[in-house]
User: Fold this.
Amino acid sequence: MNTMKDIDGNNITSLLLCFFLYFLPELIEGGYVYKAMPPLYLMEEKSLKKYYKGRPWLYDKWEYYNLYHDIIADNVDLFLEDTTPDMVKKNRAPKWTDPCVKQLSKKETVRWLNKNSEYLLELGNLRKRASASTSLLERVCYYKVIFQNEQEFGKHIVKLYPECAYDIINHSIKGSIDGRHETLICDELFMRNASRYMKQMMKNHSIYVWYREKGSKAAPKRCSIGEFLTIAMASIKLKIEQRFKGLGEAEPSLLFMTTTNPKLRKLYRITIEDIKYAKDIFELLHGKSADLREQRRALLDSAEISYADIDN
Assistant:
């Protein structure tokens, strides 16, 4: 079984599996049904020569993230903060030699980068809605979590940005930040808009990290996660030559190497543990009754869907 690698291909896969599940379940139970994985990305030749010597195709977005983050980890030393709320409330930034600042190994750095692979995407989406700088948005969301009291939140914002004022009634920040005028209303609507970003942000103990060039003896620099990721990704020019929307866009030679050559292809065996449960799930996913449509909508509303899931 071979389908396109994007979200439409996943839907086609699901429909094909309905056929096997309802009419030929013994093939699935016997382990005879496989899904061949076509490539999603073809990498640019210059990027291959500069950054790594692996195969030129990638099967999904997570492979792309892992490759990108592996390259970043080869070029930087990364340190994470584990500051307590009391330290934040006292507005005291730790030194990089303090026990609360821990240097990560390369493996730990890649794992942390993978965990935050969509941090900038969510922060960028919030910026479009809030029309404020990403620097201000990061810190406002972070301090909203730490300071549940509005007065404490306002006092800390003013300490952090001395040329700003905080209106506790209108929940608004106004003033000069980094040489430019900013206005941000931190009301309930803002917090709802910020919910996806805040879920991503709260995977971390702090929004602050420390970094320096790999092998350097200089003291690392402190910045926010968003600032670090922006700098790191701007320095790595890993380019995608082509994203395959459908199988017809790939050259036959590439499809042979990636999808049909037994020595190189990537196959997923389709397995099943409980046929009745599987049929209930497929009925929910593809059934046409009004009740099932409502259940399906509720399922989608509650699902943790990432950009990588949509792009695969």
